[in-house]
Structures are given as structure tokens and as C-alpha cells.
Amino acid sequence: MLLAIVAFAWFMRRFSGTSGAGIPHAIEILAVRSVGNRERLMLVQIGEEQVLIGVGPAGMRRLHELKKPLKSPAEPKPGVDFASLLRKQMSKTPDA
What we know:
It is a single chain. By secondary structure, the chain is α+β, with helices and mostly antiparallel strands. It has a domain at 24-70. It is 24% helix and 32% strand. The chain has a four-stranded antiparallel β-sheet with strand order 1-2-3-4, with no helix packed on it.
């Protein structure tokens, strides 16, 4: 009986309509900004529309639908990675 319950739970989670079929990247999170300890603003793109959503302990709420979508940068700005900064600091010779 226990095995049947576990198998049923696995089956429901596996085939509950969330198969990978569909439009890839139909919903994308463009930006997230923290506005408090437990509150965030999220800019979400759904097809051609962009929606500003507030997320908090009580749930999610649509705050604004952008009439004119914001342009997202083509490529993120390259940041300075920690490894290269550490190598640079370690290669400096101390003055004696």
C-alpha cells in the first residue's frame, strides 16, 4: 500500500501538466529588486508584454502592466570576477 502511494505521488508530480512541451522561455524574469526584508519587485516578460509584480509574504500581486516594454540589454555587462582580482593581488610583490 505504501509503495502505491509513493508511486502515485511520483506519477502526479511527473505528469501534472508541467511537461517541457510548449514555448521555451515564454515567461522570463527580467529584473528583481529587493524593497524590504521579505518584499521584492519583479519585472516579468510574458510574450510581448511586461508586468511589474510585487512579491511578499502574503503572495504575489500585479502592480503595473507596461504599455511600452522596456528594452533589455543584449548582453549583460561583463563584471570583474573574484578569481582575476585575487590573482592580480597575489602577483604583486611586497616592497621590502
